[in-house]
Automatic annotation (TrEMBL):
EC id: 1.2.4.4
UniProt lineage: Bacteria, Bacillati, Actinomycetota, Actinomycetes, Frankiales
Keyword Oxidoreductase: yes
Matching Pfam families: E1_dh
Biased composition (Polar residues): 1-10
Function of the molecule: The branched-chain alpha-keto dehydrogenase complex catalyzes the overall conversion of alpha-keto acids to acyl-CoA and CO(2). It contains multiple copies of three enzymatic components: branched-chain alpha-keto acid decarboxylase (E1), lipoamide acyltransferase (E2) and lipoamide dehydrogenase (E3).
UniProt cofactor(s): thiamine diphosphate
InterPro entries: Alpha-ketoacid_DH_E1_comp, DH_E1, THDP-binding
Protein name as it appears in the record: 2-oxoisovalerate dehydrogenase subunit alpha
Region described as Disordered: spans on this chain: 1-31
Keywords linked to the UniProt accession: Oxidoreductase, Thiamine pyrophosphate
Organism: Frankia canadensis
Length: 389
């Protein structure tokens, strides 16, 4: 095969008519190294009030993960994909959004959902198997937790683009919103991820994609699923900006995501942010991570625990003492106790809700099935054998 250098070959310096102008990829390339703030002079620019709130959310988030994991061991939650070790990404993602913005989470992002204002019991409803979703997406502006990989990324693009079209048609309805889609490194290998970024780039939709690269798609290491220099480099192929950040540095994640949201909100197009992080726990409670991860690797990442790193920074700059740390720890224990108390009262799901929120207009088959179930439940309530002739 002969490689043609079109910069020197006559007639090939410009693309044929109709193929569109070429873009300079340089402004789209991600940071050469993951952005870090902790341990640098940039940390001094953050407001102390924000630092305290970030710390509080991190500690509450860690305790939330621990309590939810314990509930799975007790058989009170069917499954729980912990985000332990990834709390900096989860907390920052929730905190950089304004009230009019939308969050599109995955099944591992219950902490981000809680940090944005959903009650823990409601955020865990799906994991209990009691309902499609425990919260109203429109009330909280949070899409349902997505179990299929990357499908929510395309939904985020669609919502953001639709909001912009509505604003153009009716300026009075303009909300200036941004959609933030959370995905894992495994999701970047899915077709839905490609389609979402492609449409976002073409449409210039106000969307931010946060890839929490924790190194594994369940048991598959990143090197087995992508040969890209970084996942952030994937942005260039779609004509959007890529950013690379240390996902265990909560200040760096907050800063980079804030810049990305501002970029998208200003109409400058979507942004793909890759956060380098690590899940300290197994994929879920049904997984044995020791089968594919060496203990030394996990220990090395424990030394970069985002909660510990941030607490060390706050103590070094005089913003955290034992009294404040104890107060936040007590608040975390109160949260855990509140979650346990809510789980003591098991809900009584309505079987009829099985047919809700499937189609905007139920199909004939669904209506038939719903009527059959209602009839059977009525017979049971009357003490009649529904199977008798």
């Amino acid at each position: 095969m002969t490689i043609v250098d079109d910069s020197t070959t006559p007639g090939l310096a410009e693309p044929p008519t109709g193929h569109g102008p070429r873009r300079d990829p340089a402004p789209l390339l991600p940071d050469p190294r993951p952005v870090r703030v902790l341990g640098t002079d940039a940390a001094a620019a953050f407001d102390p009030g924000l630092l305290h709130e970030l710390h509080r959310q991190l500690v509450l988030g860690r305790r939330f993960n621990q309590q939810a994991t314990t509930l799975t061991r007790q058989g009170r939650i069917a499954v729980y994909p912990a985000s332990t070790g990834q709390e900096a990404c989860q907390v920052a993602a929730a905190m950089v959004l304004s009230s009019q913005d939308w969050l599109f989470p995955t099944y591992r992002d219950t902490l981000a959902v809680v940090a944005r204002g959903v009650r823990p019991i409601d955020a865990l409803t799906l994991m209990r198997g009691h309902a499609h979703s425990g919260y109203d997406p429109y009330t909280h502006r949070i899409a349902p937790l997505a179990t299929p990989l990357a499908t929510q990324a395309a939904h985020a693009v669609g919502l953001a683009h639709a909001a912009r079209l509505r604003a153009a048609a009716d300026p009075a309805s303009a909300e200036d919103l941004v959609a933030l889609a959370l995905v894992g490194d495994g999701a970047t290998s899915e077709g839905d991820f490609h389609e979402a970024l492609n449409f976002a780039g073409v449409l210039g939709a106000p969307v931010v994609f946060l890839v929490q690269n924790n190194g594994y798609a369940i048991s598959v290491p990143l090197a087995r699923q992508s040969a890209a220099p970084t996942l952030a480099h994937k942005a260039v192929g779609y004509g959007i900006v890529g950013r690379l950040v240390d996902g265990n540095d909560v200040l760096a994640v907050h800063r980079v995501l804030s810049e990305a949201v501002a970029h998208a909100r200003a109409g400058r197009g979507p942004v793909l942010v890759e956060a380098i992080t690590y899940r300290l726990e197994a994929h879920t409670n049904a997984d044995d991570a020791s089968r594919y991860r060496p203990a030394g690797e996990v220990d090395a990442w424990r030394a970069r625990d985002p909660v510990t790193l941030f607490e060390r920074h706050l103590r070094d700059v005089g913003l955290l003492d034992d009294a404040r740390a104890d107060a936040v720890a007590r608040a975390a224990e109160e949260l855990a106790a509140h979650i346990r108390a809510q789980f003591d009262a098991a809900p009584a799901p309505d079987p009829g809700s099985l047919f809700e929120h499937v189609y905007a207009q139920p199909t004939a088959q669904l209506r038939e099935q719903a009527a059959d179930l209602a009839a059977r439940l009525a017979l049971e309530a009357d003490g009649t054998d529904g199977g008798a002739a």
